[in-house]
## 1
Amino acid sequence: MDEASHTYLLFGQRFRSDIALPELGPELARDSRRDDTTAIVIRRGAVPEDGTQVGPQIGPFSHAAPDALWLRIPNIARYLVQGGNRVTYAPEPGIDDDSVRVFLLGSCIGTLLLQRGQLVLHGNAFAIGDGCALCVGPSGAGKSTLAARMMQRGHPVIADDVCPIDAEGRAIPGMARMKLWQDTADRLAIDTSRLRRIRPGLAKYDLPMGETFHAQPLPVRAIYVLSPWNRETFAVKELSGLAKFQALRDNTYRFRFLKGMALGPGHMRQCGDLAARVPVAELHRPRQGFDIDGLVDAIRDDFVRRNVLA
C-alpha cells in the first residue's frame, strides 16, 4: 500500500484504502510502528471483466466461489471481494468516486464481513435502555425512517443497513452516518440543503449522526420484522421455533452472496444461536399514512413489556 493510503476503523476492523472514504469519519493517525498486516485492504486494480473467471454466476451481475465474490455494477465499476481481507475495484472510465464508494461501502463491506464469519442482517439497530432493538424488513417497510425518527427522539443509532451481530448477540457499530431518501427527510423535517448526496443525481443523502451515534457494541434485546398491513392499528406478533429462524435467514444481508460463497452451514448455526438467544417478532404497522411516532411508541411499549428498559 502506498504512502497516500487512508486508514479507518469500521465494524471493529482496520481498513487501509487508496481511495478516501469520508463516510467513515476521521482517518486514524498514521503510526509507522503499528503492524498493519492484518488490515483490510481496499485498492484500485485489475478485476476480471468476465465473472466466470472467478466462479459460477449467482445473479445478473455477480459470480461467486468459496471466499470470493465478483460484482459488476453497470456503468459504475467491477469489484472483487476476497478472503475477508481485500477489495479490488476497477471503475468505468470517467466515473466519479462517490458512485464507486456507494457499492464499496455497501455490498462489498457486507460481503467482507460475511467472509470473516460474521452474522450480518439487513436492518437498523438503535439503543433503548441498556440494549438495542434491531429492525429488519423488506425494502419500503420503513427501516430507515424509523431509525432516523428514533435518533430524533434520543435513541442513538448503532448501525444502518449493514448490521453485524457478534457471537455474544451484540450489534456491532457501523458507520456514523445514515442514508436518507428525500421523501424520508421531508417527512421528518430534515433539511437536506447542506447534506451530501451519496452519488450525483440521486436524491439520497448522507446524514451524519454526530453525538447520536453509539460507538460501542450493545446486546440485541429484540428483533422486529417490520410488516405493513391494511389495518389502522399496530400489532406485535411473537415468532417462535422455525419462524424465528426463517425471519433471520430472510433478512440476512445479501443472502444470495452468502450462499454462493458456500457459507450457508455456518450461517445456519449463527441464525439458530441468535434465535435461541433473542426474541423475534413481527411488528405490523398501518400501510396508509405511516404514523412514524406511533411506530416508535409501539417498539418502546414492547420493550417495556419485556422489562428491557432500565
## 2
Amino acid sequence: MAKPAVEFIARGTKLYLIYRPRDDDSWVHDRFARGESLEIKGTFHLNMSDLAEGQARRDPEDFGDEDMEMRFVVATAKGNYFVFKPAIVQVTVPVLVARDVNPKWKWFSTEAKVSVLKLLADLRPSRIVIGGKATDAIPVSEYEKLVAQFPTPYELKRYVQSRLSVVLRELTDATVDAEATLRKYVAKRVNAKPQDLIKPFRELEVSKYEFLHEKLTAMLVDAEGYTELQWQEQILDIVRLLNPKYIAAFTTVSIKDTLTGRHRQLDILLVDANGNIDVIEIKKPFKAKIVTETTYRDNHVPHRELAGTVTQVEKYLFHLNRWGTAGEEKLTKRYKEKLPTGMRIRIVNPCGLIIMGRDNDLTDQQKADFEVFRRQNKNVVDVVTYDDLLRRLDRVLKQLRAGR
C-alpha cells in the first residue's frame, strides 16, 4: 500500500513532517538553492533550515522504494505540547498539538489546498490548541468534527451555482433551484450541536423553583396568616420569577376613568421589557369553590368573587385603552425614576391576569365548566388558580431535572 505524500511523526522532542515527492527530491533542493520555500498543501512553508539532520541532497539512483522521503522539523516540544514554528504555518497565533495525539495533514489543510489554521486564526482566538488537557484545548474528536465542516469542492461548486441561479432563473427558463440544492447538501453535512446555555445554571434554577414551590405550598396552608398586601407582594414575586418578561410592577396605580373624568385605582400594573403594560389582580384564596357547586341550567357558573373580579379588570383595561397617548405620557412621567433610562410606558391592548382560588377540589364537570369560562375571556383576561401555579412550578422542575 502506497504511503501518503504527507504525514507527521513524533520523535522525542520534535514533530517531523514527512514529505514524499512524486519523483526524487532534487527539484526541492533546487528550489532551496534559489532561495525559494517549499509550500505543501497551501499550509506549510518549508525552507532548507527546517530539514532534519542527514537530509542533504542525494543522488536519485540512491533512492529505494521506501526511503524516497524528506523530513522537516515543524514543531518542538514545550511541556505536554508540540509548538509549531510560526514561519512554517504562517498564522498570527500560536499553534499547539498535544504530544500524545497523532496529527494528520487533513487537520491543517483542505482538499482545495487551503490552510485550515489560517481560517481559524482569522477568528482571532488567543491560540489554537488541539488535544491535551489545557483549559482552552479543543478535544481531538471535536476538532475533527470542526474540520469536517469545511466545504468540499462539490459544495463550493454548488455555492457558485446558487449565486448564479438567483439571476439566471429570473432571466431564463432554467428550472433547477441550485440554492435549495445547496441548502439540502449543507444541512446533511453540518451536524454541529448548539451549546447548552442552560447547563451551567441548571442547578441554580432547580434550587430557585424548588424554593418557590415550597414557599407557595406553605403559603396556601397558612393563607390566613397573611394580610392582603403581604399576600399580593409574595405572589407577585413568584409570578415575575415564573415570567421574567416583566421588569417592573407598580402597586396602587391611579388611572383616569375616561367616562366620568374621575380616577380609579388598580392594584398592580406590570411593565414588560418593551414598556408595554398589563394589569394583574391577586386575591387570597377563599374557602368557597371557584365555581358554584349547584348548577344553573346544568352549568356550574363562576363564583361571584371571580365574575366580579373579571368585570373589574375588564373595566381597567377599557379605561387604559381610552386613556391612550395621554395616559402613556402621564404614567411614563410618574414612574420615570423607577424604569430604565429612556424607557417609555406604552398602552397597546393591555391584557389582564387574575390569580385567585383553587381547583384541586373540583369535580370533573366543574373543571370542564371552569375551563370553558376561562377560555371565553382568555383573549382579554387570563384566570390562573393557585393550583395552576403549583403545576407550572412542578413541570418546570421536572424539565430542569431531566436536563431538557
## 3
Amino acid sequence: MSRKKKHEHVNHERWLVSYADFITLLFAFFVVLFASSQSDKKKQMAVAAAMQTAFTPMGSFEEHAKTPPLDPAPSSSMVIRPAALAMPFPQAGQLTPEQEMKARIAKLMQNAGKRLPPGSVTTRMTSDGLAISLHEIGFFPSGSAAIRSEAIPILTALAESIPDVPLRVEGHTDNIPIHTSQFQSNWELSTARASAIARLLLERGSMHPNNMAAAGYAEFHPIASNASEQGRSQNRRVDIILLRDRAASR
C-alpha cells in the first residue's frame, strides 16, 4: 500500500522580505539625496552672499540685510572672498567712477580760483577711459617741458585725487614744428612733458609705478583742427587717461 505524499506548506508571504529590503534601500537612497541637497543649499547661500558683497558699495552686509552672512565656523579654514571689481556697476542714484572723478576735477578747478587760466583743465570720455587734459596754457611755457610753479599745487591736489588705477600719461603738441637745442622735434617735446607730469604724479600721489605709463605722440593725435590758433591751443596738452583695461597701459 503506497504512502500518501504530504503536501508542503507554501509560504505566500516570502515576498514581504524582498519588499522590506527594497523599501530599506529606497529609504537610504532618499536620505543620501536629502543630505546632498542640504549641502548644495549651503554652497548656494555662500555664493549668493559673496555676490551681494561684491555689489555692495562698502563691500559688507548691513545689519538688517535679508541675506545671511557667511558662516564664520571656527573649524573651517577656507574663507570665501569675492574678487574686487575695478569698475563696479553703479546702483540707482550712484555716480560711476568716471562721473565721480569728473566731479572731483570740477571742484578742484573751483578751488583753484585764479591760479590757472580758464580752460586749463578739461575732461572727456575716450575709448580707453576718462581723459583729463592739462593744456599748455596753464601748465607749460611755450616750447618748454618745465611745469609752471603756479600749477604745482593744482597738480598736487590732482595727484592726491586720482585713485591707484592703471593710467597712461600722453604728451601732445600742435603741428607747428619745433627745433631747439633741447628739443629736435615735437616728439621730444611731447615725451618730455608727459614724463614731467608722470614724475610729479608719482611723487605727490599714492599710485604705484606699475600702474603708470608715459608716451609722447607729437602732433599726430589732435582733438581739434590745427587750422586755427584756438584749435592748436587745445592740441597742446598732456592727457592723463584713467584706463578701463590694464592691458592698454602697456
